[in-house]
Amino acid sequence: MYVAQLIALVVILKPFSNLLLAYGERHFSHVPLVNPLAYIASLFDPFVAAGVLIQIWWMLSRMRLFSVADLTFVIPVTAVGYVLTSLLGKFFLHEVISPVRWTGIALVCVGSMLVAGTRRNTTRSVSA
Hints:
Blueprint: H1 2-25, H2 36-42, H3 46-68, H4 71-78, H5 80-92, H6 99-116
Helix pairs in contact: 1-3, 1-5, 4-6, 5-6
């Protein structure tokens, strides 16, 4: 059960951190992209700062998940986070999602379901 909870945490954290980062960075869209100081200044936006902190939590959780499940399981299963990110973008940031993107989102869902139905761990042999 621990692996399932860890998967849920990893899947939930990434989309919400992306949402906060995107929302916060939209306040800085007028700044030229070549100015690295503008990106550092954007870290002081509360939404961006929260997004960065959640990204750190997500990375630590993902590292833990890699220690208990196979890479070939973790990556496809957690890809369902892309679906959640798209939905958050649509409903909270009012982004338009084209039919082609919805098709891609559906394919990600199908692929994640296929992988989720497989074993989480294989033998722990690492060749040098």
